[in-house]
Write a structure and sequence with these properties.
By secondary structure, this protein is of the alpha/beta class. It folds into two domains: 7-72 and 324-436, Aspartate Aminotransferase, domain 1; 74-320, 3-Layer(aba) Sandwich (Aspartate Aminotransferase, domain 2), CATH 3.40.640.10. Helices cover 37% and strands 16% of the residues. The strands form four sheets. It has an eight-stranded mixed β-sheet with strand order 4-13-12-11-10-5-9-7, sandwiched between helices. The protein has a four-stranded mixed β-sheet with strand order 1-2-3-16. β11 (238-242), α8 (254-258) and β12 form a beta-alpha-beta unit. Residues 158-165 have low confidence and may be disordered.
């Protein structure tokens, strides 16, 4: 194991803490969940990322899933470079927006009209507004452990896990903001039924990550999504799929194509911007036409449809729809899952590894992980030890036990082999630490 030096990162972090809240602009980057000093990144290319001390790592964060082609993909870089002299933002329509919209709509038949925004949070906030306007109802049902951005109404937790009115998960979020938000248990259709039995006539929509990817990676059980579709139709509620992560990652048509479920509305982000800031929401035309300027649901944004993001997203979608892309991604992801599991077994360490396509969740537990409660059984202390050992061996994993590992088209089989070898040493180190303590 190479002893890495992080003097520059440590110095930059001290400097950043003087002017940035916590030294970062998104909490998980601060490494609070795993300990230590966060990496400050200088550059990235393909499957590799390099910090300000010159240390290079195999990158399995991939900008939290956005970089399905890997970093600095040549076609994306070249077209952005060529376009830059024409300007970076106009605050006016461009044909680029239409071209990207057409690509998305052709891949996701449930989306007939779409509106581009600037983040997944903005998409989640906006989609609830239009759902309430369409149904003339107030309440929303979400799931414990599912994250839909930091809008007040969605930033909640679910207490016991049974359907209940939510408790705000952040200071500054008022009870009034979350008073119309109900919470049920992911993968538990009975908890959904109980909520609808009590509040069904006032439930505007159910919003769900079709594959939960913010409490680690948890696939839906075989009847869960179909059950949501049936219940929402019965009660006249809308079904919203938050595919900010799964859109164009679970498959080219997202989780809705993979599981053959048609939602009424969909949130998108990450991959559709090719690594640049983006979000979107779309769905049936009769619902989306309620949005201004056609209807009275107001939503606007200065940088919405930014040409840089539209260019990067358009190229990305064109590249990943080429024959064989997802087949190769599946092969590499399966190799990584198998290798990680074998590395743990070699060291007699109990883990559960969930995978959907190129998304992988590693849980440090001997329980099957199917919802938020079982996800919380994961040993976060051991994950921190594992994380730092992997980092020392040149593999950059998410700095939280409840985030998802992402594989990109840029990862090679050699990258996978090196990562598995690193995992053998990391599980050994984690096991040794557990025995010693």
């Amino acid at each position: 194991m190479t002893l890495l030096k992080h003097q520059n990162c440590e110095s930059l972090y001290r400097q950043a803490c003087k002017v940035l809240v916590g030294g970062v602009n998104s909490p998980v980057r601060a490494f609070k969940a795993v300990g230590g000093t966060p990496l400050f990144i200088k550059r990235a290319k393909g499957s590799k990322i390099q910090d300000e001390d010159g240390n290079t790592y195999i990158d399995f964060v991939c900008s939290w899933g956005a970089l399905i082609l890997g970093s600095a993909y040549p076609k994306v870089v070249n077209e952005l470079r060529n376009y830059l002299p024409r300007g970076t933002s106009y605050g006016a329509p461009t044909k680029l927006e239409t071209e990207l919209a057409e690509l998305i709509i052709s891949a996701m038949p449930s989306i007939e009209k779409i509106r581009f925004v600037n983040s997944g949070t903005e998409a989640g906030m906006s989609v609830l507004r239009v759902a309430r306007a369409y149904t003339k109802r107030q309440r929303i049902l979400k799931f414990e452990g599912c994250y839909h951005g930091h809008a007040d109404a969605l930033l909640v937790k679910g207490g016991s896990g049974m359907a209940t009115f939510a408790i705000p998960d952040s200071d500054g979020v008022t009870a009034a903001s979350t008073g119309n938000t109900c919470v049920a248990t992911y993968n538990d259709i009975e908890s959904v039924k109980k909520t609808f039995e009590k509040y069904g006539d006032d439930l505007a929509a159910v919003i769900v990550e079709p594959v939960a990817a913010n409490m680690g990676l948890i696939p839906p059980n075989p009847r869960f999504l179909a059950g949501l579709r049936e219940i929402t139709k019965t009660y006249g509620s809308l079904l919203i799929f938050d595919e900010v992560i799964t859109g164009f990652r679970a498959s080219y048509g997202g989780a809705q194509k993979l599981y053959e479920i048609t939602p009424d509305l969909t949130c998108l982000g990450k991959i559709i911007g090719g690594g640049l800031p983006v979000g979107a929401y779309g769905g049936r035309q009769d619902i989306m036409d309620l949005v201004a300027p056609l209807g009275h649901v107001y939503q606007a944004g200065t940088l919405s449809g930014n040409p840089m993001a539209m260019i990067a997203g358009r190229i990305t979608l064109r590249e990943i729809r080429k024959p064989g892309f997802y087949e190769k991604l599946e092969e590499k992801s399966a190799l990584l899952q198998k290798g990680l599991l074998e590395a743990a077994q070699t060291n007699q360490y109990s883990v559960r590894i969930n995978r959907v396509g190129s998304m992988i969740g590693v849980f440090f537990t001997d329980k099957n992980v199917v919802d938020y409660e079982t996800a919380k059984s994961s040993n976060v202390k051991d994950y921190g030890i594992f994380f730092h050992s992997m980092l020392a061996h040149g593999a950059y994993l998410p700095p939280s036990a409840f985030e998802t590992i992402f594989v990109s088209g840029a990862h090679s089989k050699n990258d996978i082999a090196k990562t598995v070898k690193a995992a053998e040493a990391a599980f050994r180190a984690t096991k040794s630490h557990a025995v010693a303590s």
